[in-house]
Write a structure and sequence with these properties.
Elements (H helix, E strand, L loop, with lengths): L1 H11 L7 H13 L1 H4 L9 H8 L5 H22 L2 H4 L13 H18 L2 H24 L5 H28 L9 H28 L5 H34 L7 H49 L3 E2 L1 H45 L2 H29 L3 H11 L4 E3 L2 E3 L1 E2 L5
Antiparallel strand pairs: 1-4, 2-3
Length: 425
């Protein structure tokens, strides 16, 4: 036993150099098992239980002072030194449904496991941030593709994305509550996290826009549901970005010099610009909604004129129902536009006040203004998203109304446009 302890202690202070043959064989074994190691359900293994169980057979002090450090070194040797992660680089651009996607996710989980073993909370947070960006990119790629199951896959990826962002958000909470003497996480690190979550937010905005624009009467409800899930994830990313700014400011005021005062102000300014942009996007969405309704009105009027000119009779009941539908959509769009404008004006006012405080150097109050403006922009988006959802019900009218002029029977949602064309005399 004394011999074993001496050997373990010697290994603890020595450099671990596993043979090339051993690394190669184990790497091949790991890769061959990738497809069978991925479980659709998240499984959590308590490493503490592993160490505690080993303590039943080996002295506890030996387990935690020698065995656990050696286990960490062993995993690092396999994952990092051996280049196992590099071996699955081909899986980097894979998407759900691709067999290599399993390898991609296993590699990610292995990286997090290594960071957890080493005890680096910062590394774990940065990994979750990076994986959130990957999930956002995957969502964009799936939407751009022709996969018949794209909506289901987007839902799954977005759910995973939310988990990653939530992990980052919790870490930021811990960073914020940590004492000023804790220098393990710097403002510079938090700045990187902020930039990552901003990228996630921007990518999800593109995805949401694509979903809403591409929706048709046939799949409106399912597309809107997916768009809502994407929007929820985007809101979470927005909130996390604001939280990152708050942590940066707090650490800076505590004396963290990893980010200069000028850089802190620049991060604040970019956040203020972001909420202004978000408000403008909601405003633009409402303008687009109103444009669709106006186009529907024009098309309906042209149909009536054309019918009179061609001596074509359009079913009066159906026409009345169609006009009523357009009229209701117009009223709803105008009301939503007015509400959105009120929120946008409020955001503009808040941002102006924040910039004044920023010039005075009152960073704490500026952060509060950013929070206020961020909440307002989410309200504006909620209004505009609902308006887009409502107008999606009549949007197809704009494209199919010309068919009415030519005497083609077609359908809009649950209403059927029926034409009664009298025989030629």
């Amino acid at each position: 036993m004394q011999n074993l302890i001496a050997q373990l202690k010697q290994m603890k202070h020595s450099e671990v150099k596993p043979s090339e043959a051993w690394l190669k064989n184990n790497r091949a074994l790991l890769l061959s098992q990738i497809k069978n190691t991925v479980n659709t359900e998240n499984q959590k293994i308590s490493l503490d239980n592993v160490w505690n169980t080993m303590s039943l057979f080996i002295p506890r002090t030996l387990v935690f002072s020698v065995v656990r450090p050696m286990a960490v070194l062993l995993v690092v040797s396999i994952v990092a030194t051996s280049g196992w992660i590099t071996s699955v680089d081909a899986a980097y651009n894979s998407l759900p449904g691709d067999w290599l996607y399993g390898a991609k996710r296993v590699a990610e989980k292995t990286q997090v496991a290594v960071a957890s073993l080493i005890g680096s909370k910062t590394d774990q947070t940065m990994l979750h941030s990076e994986f959130a960006k990957r999930r956002a990119t995957e969502t964009k790629q799936i939407i751009a593709g022709n996969d018949p199951q794209k909506q289901q896959k987007v839902q799954e990826v977005v759910n995973d994305l939310k988990i990653e962002i939530a992990s980052v958000s919790r870490s930021l909470d811990e960073m914020q509550s940590a004492s000023s003497s804790d220098s393990s996480v710097t403002a510079d690190t938090v700045k990187d996290l902020k930039q990552d979550t901003e990228q996630v937010k921007d990518t999800l905005q593109e995805v949401k826009t694509t979903l809403l624009v591409a929706s048709t009467a046939a799949d409106t409800s399912s597309t809107i549901a997916v768009a809502q899930a994407v929007n929820d994830a985007r809101d979470l990313a927005k909130d996390t970005t604001v939280k990152a700014v708050e942590v940066i400011v707090a650490k800076h005021l505590e004396g963290d010099t990893s980010v200069s005062t000028a850089e802190v102000k620049q991060e604040i300014a970019s956040s203020l610009q972001a909420v202004t942009t978000d408000a403008s996007q909601s405003q633009q969405s409402m303008q687009n909604v109103q444009a669709v309704v106006t186009a529907a009105k024009v098309e309906a009027k042209d149909v009536a004129i054309k019918a009179i000119a061609d001596k074509t009779t359009v079913d009066a009941t159906t026409t009345a129902a169609l006009n009523e539908k357009i009229s209701k959509a117009s009223t709803a769009a105008n009301d939503a536009a007015a509400q959105t404008q009120t929120v946008v004006d409020s955001v503009d006012k808040t941002v102006t006040e924040a910039n004044t405080l920023l010039d005075k150097g009152d960073l704490t109050k500026v952060v509060e203004k950013i929070k206020e403006a961020n909440t307002a922009t989410k309200e504006a988006e909620k209004i505009s998203n609902q308006a887009v959802t409502d107008v999606a019900q009549i949007a197809p009218i704009v494209s199919i109304l010309p068919a009415v002029v030519t005497g083609t029977s077609t359908s809009v949602g649950t209403d059927t446009i029926k034409l009664i064309v009298p025989p030629k005399l």
